[in-house]
Amino acid sequence: MAVGVDTFHAGLVAPRPLRRKLAQDLDCEACVIGGGFAGLWTARALARRGFEVVVIEAGRVGSGASGRNAGFVGPGYAEPLDGLIARVGLDHARELWALSRDGVELVRAAVHGGRIAGVEPVGGHLVVRRKDEERATHREADRLRRQFDTPVDVWRTREVRGVLHSPHYFQALHFPEAFHINPLALAFGLAEELERAGVRIFEDTEALRADLNGVRKHVATGGGRIRAKHVVLASGVPSGRVWPAVTRGVIPVSTFIGVTEPLGEKLYAAVQFPGAVSDMRRAGHYFRRIAGARLLFGSGITTRRSVPGGLTGTLAREIGDTFPDLVGAKVEHAWAGTMAYAVHRMPQIGQIKPGVWLAAAFGGHGLNTSAIAGELIASAITESDERWKLFAPFGVVRIGGPLGRIGVQASYWHMRFKDRMEERRARNASAHRTPMRGEPAT
Ligand SMILES: Cc1cc2nc3c(=O)[nH]c(=O)nc-3n(C[C@H](O)[C@H](O)[C@H](O)COP(=O)(O)OP(=O)(O)OC[C@H]3O[C@@H](n4cnc5c(N)ncnc54)[C@H](O)[C@@H]3O)c2cc1C
Fold first, then answer.
1. Domain for residue 163, yes or no?
2. pLDDT at 401
3. Residue at 438 is within a domain
């Protein structure tokens, strides 16, 4: 298990020495397994309610998806709204969506209240279409405003292309309450806050075996055993074979991020919007400007866990295809991150047996949703709050091993192929369209 965090984010935060490894047996009220956002938020919510908490992390805090992501914090889940409504109905979907907005506010409060160094929040998220679908964009905005109580603006193609110099983009939804951050700085800041509150965090400490049946649960690591009344499995894609049922319930999906060389004025001309940007494809591009006039650009999903050869070149080509002004821009840093997805693309949050809690499968939308998981689990343990049951329809669904993974990869390729064909048609239609009066030719 790697213990470092090898991303561009890591160079922007002060280096921290590795925390001590667990080297003796100990007792506590709650043992949280995993030092990503799900574990950190849960530990924080429990500690704030007076619980004695121990966190064990196989690598370093933030060395999983939590310290390697794009840092977009906005409402919603990995599963889009249509799927959510189809699955649980409108009223239930509204409650889940409201929780997802609470998650955004929890992150905002921690970022602003905690004065965590290096998080650098920047407001706004544009979700852009790569097809000309003005009516659908308005319909979606109306639904979000009326049924889901969410502030959102429609930006027309002209406005979008005024701030994003790309021929691929049409209308966008702008979420003014969303923001972006350096996620690793937040993970480090939360961990330090936890330690100030008396939570013990052990790094380089992997849970190897667990007996979760009795009133007092036992978690074994290489250096010592933890006995706890409550255990929270917050291990993203769990290492090893400690909880086969949980491991089989998630599929590891990787995505890639690159950071360009400093691009100076060229960048500010191509990407004038300072907030987060993502396109509406299922596995589309996501990007934002970052320190030193660089572009952070993410793309792709795959069930392969290795970093593909030539990743920097591939990302540089995708940046050039998206922004003609940035053709030739070099990608200096690139990395992969692995997220845990459930087959239903919703988080798995809840009690799986008495005293054993699961906070997993946040997919590509984990910053707000892991914060809610922590809050729901802690309030369930300490106040018998039952809101976690809103996630009961999204339990641990077994994924069919390697064959299941091949199925997921095949359906991703199929979606990409469909997206490309539809975009080509959209671009051709737009090239043959007569510009409206007063509309600049783009
Ligand atoms: C490249 C990328 C970009 C993304 N962009 C965004 C974004 O912009 N916005 C957004 O909302 N979401 C984004 N996500 C998703 C988000 O990062 C994740 O959903 C979220 O971080 C998941 O948090 P987690 O705590 O569940 O998992 P992790 O961060 O992976 O943490 C799990 C931890 O458990 C540890 N662990 C595993 N097994 C054991 C064990 N046996 N014993 C002890 N510890 C163990 C691991 O080492 C790991 O540190 C992105 C993800 C990736 C990869």
1. yes
2. 53
3. no
Q: How far apart are CA 68 and CA 6, in angstroms?
A: 8
Spell out, as residue ranges, where the chain has pLDDT lower than 50.
1-3, 403, 433-442
pTM, 2 dp = 0.91
CB 366 within 8 A of CB 237: no
In a domain, 3, yes or no: no
Q: Which CATH number covers residue 109?
A: 3.50.50.60
For residue 114, tell me if it sits in a domain: yes
How remote is the CA of residue 26 from the centroid of ligand 1, in Å? Answer: 26
Interatomic CA distance for residues 210 and 155, integer angstroms = 52
Q: What is the domain range of residue 303? A: 8-391
Cα-to-centroid distance, 235 and ligand 1 (Å): 8
- Taking 3-state DSSP, the helix, strand and coil percentages for the chain, each rounded to the nearest 5, stand at 40, 25, 40
Question: What pLDDT does residue 351 have?
Answer: 94
Q: What residue's CA is closest to ligand 1, atom 13?
A: 364
The pLDDT of residue 302: 85
Residue 38 Cα to ligand 1 midpoint, Å, equals: 8
- Ligand 1 atom with the smallest distance to the CA of 37 is 25
**Please, what is the Cα angle at 240 between 239 and 242, to 5 degrees?**
105
C-alpha of residue 366 to centroid of ligand 1, in Å = 8
CB 375 within 8 A of CB 387: no
pLDDT single digits (tens) 373-387? 999 999 999 999 999
Give the model's pLDDT for residue 362: 97
What's the structural domain count of the chain?
A: 1
Residues contacting ligand 1 via CB (< 6 Å)? 33-39, 56-59, 63-66, 68-72, 206-207, 234-236, 238-240, 242, 255, 257, 298, 337-339, 360, 362-367, 370
